[in-house]
Amino acid sequence: MLTRLFNEPSLLPDMEKFGGWVDDSGSECSKTKDEEQERCRLGDEDLDDVKDGSSRAQSEIAGEEDEDDDVDEDDCGDEGDGDRPKKRGPKKRKMTPARLERSKVRRQKANARERTRMHDLNSALDNLRKVVPCYSKTQKLSKIETLRLAKNYIWALSEILRNGKRPDVVSYVQTLCKGLSQPTTNLVAGCLQLNSRNFLTEQCQEGARFHLPTPSFSMHGYPYQCSRLSSTHSQSGSNAHSLRNHSFCSAYEALYAEGTSPEYNSPDYEGHHSPPVCVNGNFALRQQEPLSPEAERGYQYSMHYTSLHGSRSSTAHGLAYAPSGARSGSAHSENLPPFHDVHVHHDRAPAYEELNAFFHN
DNA sequence: TAGGCCATCTGGTCCT
DNA sequence: AGGACCAGATGGCCTA
Predict the structure, then answer these.
(1) What predicted TM-score, i.e. pTM, was given to this entire model?
(2) Is the Cβ–Cβ distance between A274 and A259 less than 8 Å?
(3) What is the pLDDT of residue A173?
């Protein structure tokens, strides 16, 4: 016969899904045989070391009816392992109904807290998804891919700042996709309106440039200038259509031609939008230096365009970002760093080595 | 059907 | 004692 370990559905919405079932012997039926064996493998000393107080409540609850006062209960040695040494450590106190109830409540509260904590964590992750490139409500990046992409994105921005040049799209995509799974790589490529084929084609075209400007698209009500990135081919899978076309385009020329600058400290940032970064220049490092073996290894899930590095075009444009949100008539750069205050000094040596080490880890 | 991703439970550890 | 954090386990869902 099975009995519920906990039976408050309001606090344990999915209890049936999980453990929490105990049989009359007190062992948790939901635990696999392997786990049970693992617990036994730990041995008495290990178990005694860790089983204490509330941690012990579970087995106490389960075995309440069998236990005697001041008698230790062996978690997994009850059946047929009589010559095992006696447990050491504090003797178990009898589980009174009151203690039992307290244990249950404690566990339920802990579960609720844990759920809340994980929800908060997921919420933060959702916010992160919104500020990294390739945000899609319908095709969410997985947690791990979100973190990887965010890391790459930070790296890419750092490179831009360091070099003060626009990276070419190929380099940018390579950087963003480093270490990402193939589906995510496709997603990013789709975000950039690139696919492997024309990606390679562009690579092979001598002097290929990703000139910005011309067609425009509307991003959250704001017109954006973006050249090929807003063109027709959204070919990297079905999700490309659902992607917002904002991540890689900006009023690029406007910023640099007119000297306008993005505003960063907007107080009303809601985290809804990826920074509208447009990158049509170079990552000097990526371009001038062959990838290290570590870096090469980082491409294991990536697009594997490393053989094309040498043929990369070397256009060196300026770096630009979209003008800021409502006040400036453009959009969503509230979460951008204050680039108008950034002056890239080429003789300055930022903590590049650390960045490099970080990126290639 | 296998594998990836996820939510949840659970017990341990550390800290207040 | 209790909360935060963590990692392991488990089962559900989805997709190739």
Answers:
(1) 0.48
(2) no
(3) 84
